[in-house]
Specification:
Two copies of one chain form a homodimer.
Chain A lengths: L2 E7 L4 H15 L7 E7 L16 H9 L3 H17 L15 H12 L3 H15 L6 H10 L4 H9 L4 H14 L6 E4 L3 E4 L4 H13 L4 E5 L11
Parallel strand pairs in A: 1-2
Antiparallel strand pairs in A: 1-3, 3-4
Helix pairs in contact in A: 1-9, 2-3, 4-5, 4-7, 6-7
């Protein structure tokens, strides 16, 4: 028996990174963690963001302008988020943060999925964004990060130079719309149970337990069949 | 929105081939058929079957011996099955049938899955078994069939000469055990609804409709998240 866990997330989403840590904490306590098949699903908070980034250091001003707040208000929001992250052991450096388009980062996450390195790349991208000031659309930085987690450079270059996995990103986003997902992180457990947002580890663990327990099939009908003792050729 | 349909089946299972036709009839009437993602899952009715086959022509005698029936009784079973198949437009030629181990056929079905040719190969294998007297373990015949449906010969040869996809076959069978599946065909709709056996198309269509309708997520909790208007970096 396995349990699919699909997490819709962006790489510029602070609650997603906090939620990743909370999910990891829940998973560490989940008795069937070896049977969990985790997939990171693409979700762009701002598909219209420019790929080319602004310089670091003006994030609080950009945030204030974007959301119509004063700079001190925006700084309080960032301080609160930084504290939430610190409680999960994460060091958020919004003073270094830069905006950027995340579409290509998501395409690389799909490449990484094929070779089992998706979670490693997701972690590395989140850390780069929130601790190291990555501009998400920066191909030079993305390439270095992808190669660092073990993706073949030739494959990474090919993805960045083409539109490979664009369909996969859009398919994830279409699935999110079909599910009615309007914010991230969003956890789908067993294709059936939805958890919206970065809930505490206890709540995520309870959801994992529920999805596991209620996983057995609901039989909706029976007809003629063959078993080991009848009717094979 | 998509709907996964996983069908556990063997290639020497007459009800599986009949069930395939009934499922196809149901699918043709299912309004969301373009969103159905069909996967054939491996199930061996007799994992201990010898790969090397008996000559054709003695199937009814083998069947009678295997199930402790008289030859006329076994013939009646075959005639009834042949009539069931004919009602679905299938020509069963049990007079040509030969036994064989199906493990390698299942490995090829996993290879075919990777290139979108799984359903074509499944259909061709079933027809070979039930209409043309294929011995399921015959590598020469399997190779010809696999190449005929468009699999690259070099890949087919590599699979047949190795144990590639053995783990995938065993994983399908482990999943079947976890679901409590003891006979095939067995349909799993949306990872959630189980249909045992070759039910009529009407019943399969009703199951598809139910799985589609009840697919939306059950939300089991909400926590802090980011949407397009808040909190991204």
């Amino acid at each position: 028996m396995s349990l699919n866990v699909d997490i819709w997330s962006d790489v510029v989403c602070p609650w997603c990174y906090v939620g990743k840590r909370r999910f990891e904490a829940a998973l560490a306590r989940f008795p069937h963690r070896e049977q969990v098949e985790l997939t990171w699903r693409s979700y762009e908070l701002d598909p219209t963001a420019e790929r080319t980034d602004a310089p670091a250091g003006a994030h609080v001003e950009r945030l204030a302008a974007k959301y119509g707040r004063t700079v001190p208000e925006a700084q309080r929001m960032l301080d609160e988020m930084t504290a939430n992250a610190a409680a999960e052991g994460l060091e958020f450096r919004f003073d270094l943060a830069r905006p950027g388009n995340t579409f290509d980062a998501h395409r690389l996450l799909h490449l990484a999925k094929d070779s089992g390195r998706q979670d490693a790349l997701k972690e590395r991208l989140d850390r780069a964004t929130f601790t190291e000031g990555l501009a998400s659309g920066d191909h030079v930085a993305l390439r270095a990060i992808a190669v660092e987690v073990g993706l073949p450079a030739v494959e990474v270059d090919d993805v960045l130079a083409s539109d490979r996995y664009a369909d996969a990103v859009r398919a994830d986003e279409a699935q999110a719309r079909a599910y009615g997902i309007s914010g991230v992180p969003f956890f789908v457990l067993g294709g059936r149970f939805g958890v919206s947002g970065a809930q505490p580890a206890d709540a995520l663990l309870a959801a994992l337990e529920q999805a596991w327990t209620e996983q057995p099939l609901q039989t909706v009908g029976a007809g003629p069949s063959c078993d080991g003792d009848t009717c094979e050729v």
